[in-house]
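User: Is it possible to get a 3D structure for a protein together with its bound compound? The compound here is zinc ion. I've pasted both below.
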Amino acid sequence: MHEFSIMQSTLETATQQARAAEATQIHRLKVRVGKLSGVVPEALRFAFTALKTGSLADGAEFEIEEVPAVCWCANCAAEFEATRLNYECPRCHQLSGDLRRGLELELTALEIS
Ligand SMILES: [Zn+2]
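Assistant: Yes, that's possible. Here is the predicted structure of the complex:
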């Protein structure tokens, strides 16, 4: 389950940032997960629960923000929501190779003290 290694590196990043700020506790963590990132939010949450014990994030609130997949159609000059593996513009039916959102996997907020 690759969510475990993802969560592990996210926690490492958060811990490094907390230590750099001389904080001893992480209160809240927020990650942004794109619909096409291949990460299952429930699995990520489960990994967090399993990995937080003994870390600075033990007791922290964990938030996941899901981002829909959005493609850009150059023909219509418009964005549209892409469904899984279908990047076809609903208006002109041209295939878009320009995926603008949906692959994110990042730590977006961290509350420490
Ligand atoms: Zn189009």
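The chain has two helices and six strands. The pocket of zinc ion is lined by residues 73, 75-76, 89, 91-92, 94 (CB under 6 Å).
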